[in-house]
Amino acid sequence: MRPAIDISYGLHGRVKDYAEANDLSLDEAYIEVLETGLETLETQDQQ
């Protein structure tokens, strides 16, 4: 189940722009952005 969270309008716009620039659906763009961000955080924690 997806969490109900508030995302700022500006942040949503950036993800929407990313989706359009990379020919992704909005869902695909959010998934990609979140996975990339989590991988980056996990890598930083291991250093």
TrEMBL record:
This is Uncharacterized protein. It comes from the Archaea. The lineage of its organism: Archaea, Methanobacteriati, Methanobacteriota, Stenosarchaea group, Halobacteria. It comes from Natronomonas moolapensis (strain DSM 18674 / CECT 7526 / JCM 14361 / 8.8.11).
